Amino acid sequence: MDFLSPELNAYIESHTREESDILKKLNRETYLKMMMPRMLSGHLQGQVLRMLSMMIKPKNILEIGTFTGYSAICLSDGLQEGGMLHTIDINEEYSEIINRYFKEANVESKIKRYVGNALDIIPTINETFDLVFIDADKDNYSNYFDLVINKVPKGGYIFADNVLWSGKVLESPQDMDIDTKAIVEYCNKIQADERVENVLFPIRDGIMVARKIV
Ligand SMILES: C[S@@+](CC[C@H](N)C(=O)[O-])C[C@H]1O[C@@H](n2cnc3c(N)ncnc32)[C@H](O)[C@@H]1O
User: Fold this and answer.
1) Where are the strands (E) in the chain, listed by range?
2) Which pLDDT tens digit goes with each residue over 100-122?
3) Of all protein residues, whose CA lies closest to atom 11 belonging to ligand 1?
């Protein structure tokens, strides 16, 4: 997913709000201890998510795919007073690190965690969300969109991460693996859906930003 040179990436990060000490520590610990640490949003994307959340000022956020909690901490900064970020992950093993960092970042009171399959959990959350961040199993992106679209009010946003999938979305369809196909299908679905208007942001591995217009 490194579309830009290391030098340009370094330049961009050096002209972007610094990671807080807590996010730096969480980033480092995730790389030291977790399998697949690259799933973590990281400095630039974390700050992009934070900035977008600050602009949207959501009352409620739904995050699908907590991992070690990095993007949840970033997104929660934009919540309105009294707002809540709901975050779901299927993997219980991340709980210790997530709980420790949510406490250290002082965001415990504005984040509600769910452990389990997001497909089962989303229908049980009786809330509307001004911002949804889809960042879990790629083959369910379209299912997640279908599950959340009626929980997003007009003017609300649905973000989806990794929509460039390291550039694999340009492969010919017969060479695509299941995840790549699912991501292309998701982007085609969003592009065709008249309930939303959308922009594909080429940030890191690509973020599809869809805004509900009806
Ligand atoms: C890319 S990581 C999330 C990264 C995180 N949002 C961040 O930026 O730091 C994807 C996460 O989705 C979780 N996941 C995969 N399938 C899931 C499912 N069906 N329901 C809930 N979580 C799932 C994985 O356990 C993994 O932690």
Assistant:
1) 60-64, 84-89, 111-115, 131-134, 157-161, 196-201, 207-212
2) 999 999 999 999 999 999 999 99
3) 65
Task: Tell me if 65 CB under 6 Å of ligand 1.
Answer: yes
Spatial separation of the C-alpha atoms in residues 196 and 214, rounded to whole Å: 7
| Mean of pLDDT values over 87-100 | 97
Which residues are bridge partners to 63 per DSSP? 87, 133
Q: Would you identify the CATH topology of the domain 6-212?
A: Rossmann fold (3.40.50)
The answer on pLDDT for 1 being more than 80 is no
- Residue 2: is its pLDDT beyond 90? no
pTM over 0.90: yes
pLDDT, average across residues 185-206: 98
C-beta of 67 in contact with ligand 1 (< 6 A): yes
How high does pLDDT run on average in the chain? 97
Q: Ligand 1 centre from 117 Cα, in Å?
A: 10
Return the structure tokens found at 107: 């965001």
Condensed to tens digits (0 to 9), the pLDDT of residues 73-84 reads 999 999 999 999
Nearest alpha carbon to residue 91 among 137, 125, 129: 137
Q: What are the residue ranges spanned by the domains of the chain?
A: 6-212
Separation of alpha carbons 93 and 89, rounded Å: 10
The span from the CA of 202 to the CA of 208, in Å, is 9
Residue of 67, 86, 148 to mutate, ligand 1, most atoms within 8 A of C-beta: 67
Rounded Cα distance, 161 and 165, in Å: 9
